[in-house]
Amino acid sequence: MTYGFVDEHLDTGINYYRLKSIDLDGRFDYSEIRSLVGERVEIDYSIFPNPSNGEVMNITGTDNKEFKIEVFSIGGKKVFSQSGLSTEMDFSHLENGLYMVSISQANNLKVINWIKN
């Protein structure tokens, strides 16, 4: 079997994990202990204007590394994708409404709601 887990409270340094499997009769067993070195990197992004009454949206990051931007309609359809250090995007072709903006860089992901009206 394959298991997945995202530790929302990962500490810096070594973190230890193991699974406990419990049978229907109450007996249990532990998996091998696994370790993971945690490193927190806080990256912030600026999206402006938000809400927007025009067609242009600007995104900039707090560091000088490339990031990927994807914009999705409220129905989940990808309407835009681009990579860069900072970018100005023309959204004149989009209808007014609520959009989800996904910004990813290395292992970091941030999702922001953006309104075009």
Describe, in plain words, how this protein is organized in 3D.
The protein has 117 residues and is mainly beta. It has a domain at 45-116: Immunoglobulin-like. The chain is 0% helix and 54% strand. The strands form four sheets. Strands 8-7-10-11 form a four-stranded antiparallel beta sheet, with no helix packed on it. The mean pLDDT is 77.
Summarize this entry quickly.
This protein has 117 residues and is mainly beta.
β content, as a range?
over 45%
Question: Taking strands numbered 1, 2, ... along the chain, how are they ordered across the largest sheet?
Answer: 8-7-10-11
SSE pattern, N- to C-terminal: EEEEEEEEEEE
Largest sheet: 4 strands, antiparallel
Mean pLDDT: 77
Shape: elongated
Q: Unreliable stretches, pLDDT < 50, 5 or more residues?
A: none
Strand-pairing-aware structural class: mainly beta
Alpha-carbon distance between the two ends: 47 Å
Number of strands: 11
Helix content: under 10%
Oligomerization status of the protein chains = single chain
List its traits.
117 residues; mainly beta; Immunoglobulin-like; 4-stranded antiparallel sheet; 3-stranded antiparallel sheet
Q: Which secondary structure elements does this structure contain, and how are they paired or packed?
A:
Blueprint: E1 13-17, E2 20-22, E3 28-30, E4 34-38, E5 45-48, E6 56-61, E7 67-73, E8 78-84, E9 86-90, E10 97-105, E11 108-116
Antiparallel strand pairs: 1-4, 2-3, 5-6, 6-9, 7-8, 7-10, 10-11
